[in-house]
From TrEMBL:
Domain Peptidase S11 D-Ala-D-Ala carboxypeptidase A C-terminal positions: 280-372
Enzyme Commission no: 3.4.16.4
Annotated signal sequence range: 1-29
Protein name: serine-type D-Ala-D-Ala carboxypeptidase
GO biological process: cell wall organization; peptidoglycan biosynthetic process; proteolysis; regulation of cell shape
The entry's keywords: Carboxypeptidase, Cell shape, Cell wall biogenesis/degradation, Hydrolase, Peptidoglycan synthesis, Protease, Signal
Pathway: Cell wall biogenesis; peptidoglycan biosynthesis
The protein's role, per its UniProt record: Removes C-terminal D-alanyl residues from sugar-peptide cell wall precursors.
Enzyme class: hydrolase
């Protein structure tokens, strides 16, 4: 009996060792690939084409500046700021260190020029000066960053500063995930001005006296179609990048986090982009303005029925040979459309799936103005509906 007990314990121990090794090998898979985490998205829909430890906890380093740019550009779109606003450099901003454009205390520059320095040169002093200008202090701006992250569903992300520099003694570190950085990059792409900056290899600052060299220049020069977005590095974070490429009408976003060196960072991005362009095919699933679903009865309308149409185009990238795995689910929660209704009013949605993975949702809207009928119209359609 004693021998049997020992044999049993050996067997259990062996099984536990196998399980541990399998778990360890899975955890090391991303690291063995030259990075700690990675993801590839199709930009229009946010469809995930590839992921590896995409929600793993990583340090963004200067990728935090994407959120700085996003908040400022959203404020500009809302009319609260302008690219021509003059920003004054504080003492704190002038002494921030790291990558910088060497702002001096009291110096003033247009907001647009400082954003360009952030986007291209990853200037920590410019990011600090901009944050102070917008929110009054960097602490207040960090609160804005975390609030916007929550709105965007960046559940893996906590920001503690506006520049991404490593923390000093007693300070905390920024944390995020590859998925969150890809989502943030996708949101930033809604502002075309960003690509003017991040797609340029070089530009100038301080009336041409300072050359801004894009930190992402190697990828821009070597991979056709790359025009953004942001790199990041410090010793605790490793080499990070959120990159985007446009070929024809397909735009991809790739994020690689925690690489040991620049070569691994860019090798990872190139491999992801190649995967997207060679292993997937483009399929037009919906066209803007095309009818989806059956006609709906109009309540008290001049006409009897109306159709709903897709509010946007939907193009998916799917693994080659998987067209049959695409399916649509039409959700229209109301049986009738109450007249009058303007063109473009939402009355439902269509959900697009690839196998069981939800890819995107598109609003279904009225295709025209729907007029209210007079008493004779309403009586006519009441009778037709009763006998049909």
């Amino acid at each position: 009996m004693q021998m049997q007990g020992k044999s049993f314990r050996r067997a259990v121990g062996g099984m536990l060792l196998v399980v541990f090794c399998l778990m360890r090998s899975g955890a090391m898979a991303a690291e063995d690939s030259g990075y700690k985490a990675a993801i590839l998205l199709e930009a229009q829909t946010g469809q995930v084409l590839f992921e590896d430890n995409a929600h793993g906890k990583v340090i963004p380093a200067s990728l935090v500046k994407m959120m700085v740019m996003l908040i400022v550009l959203e404020q500009i779109d809302a009319g609260r700021l302008s690219l021509t606003d003059m920003v004054t450099t504080s003492t704190w901003a002038s002494k921030i260190g790291g990558s910088q454009v060497f702002l001096s205390e009291g110096e003033q520059f247009p907001l647009g020029e400082l954003l360009k320095a952030i986007a291209m040169h990853s200037a920590n002093d410019a990011a600090t000066a901009v944050a102070e200008h917008v929110a009054g202090s960097t602490d207040a701006f960090v609160e804005m960053m975390n609030a916007r992250a929550k709105e965007l569903g960046l559940n893996d992300t906590t920001f503690v500063n506006v520049h991404g520099l490593p923390p000093a003694k007693g300070q905390k570190e920024n944390y995020t995930s590859a998925y969150d950085m890809a989502t943030l990059g996708r949101e930033l792409l809604k502002h075309p001005k960003v690509l003017e900056w991040t797609g340029a290899v070089e530009d100038t600052f301080r009336d041409g006296k300072f050359v801004l060299t894009n930190t992402n220049r190697d990828l821009i020069l070597k991979y056709p179609g790359v025009d953004g977005l942001k790199t990041g590095f410090h010793s605790g974070a490793g080499f990070n990048v959120c990159a985007t490429v446009q070929r024809d009408d397909v735009r991809l976003i790739a994020v690689v986090m925690g690489s040991n060196d620049k070569a691994d960072r860019y090798k990872g991005v190139v491999a992801l982009f190649n995967k997207g362009f060679t292993q997937f095919e483009k399929v037009q699933v919906l066209r803007k303005g095309f009818t989806v679903g059956d006609p709906l009865i109009i309540s008290k309308g001049k006409d009897r029925t109306a159709t709903l149409v897709a509010s946007n185009n939907v193009t998916l990238l799917i693994p080659k040979g998987k067209k049959d795995a695409i399916r649509q689910e039409v959700n229209i929660p109301i049986p009738r459309i109450p007249a009058p209704v303007a063109k473009g009013v939402r009355f439902g949605e269509v959900v697009i799936y690839l196998d069981d993975q939800e890819i995107t949702r598109v609003d279904l809207v009225t295709d025209r103005d729907i007029e209210r009928g007079n008493i004779f119209d309403q009586m006519k359609w009441w009778v037709v509906n009763k006998i049909s």
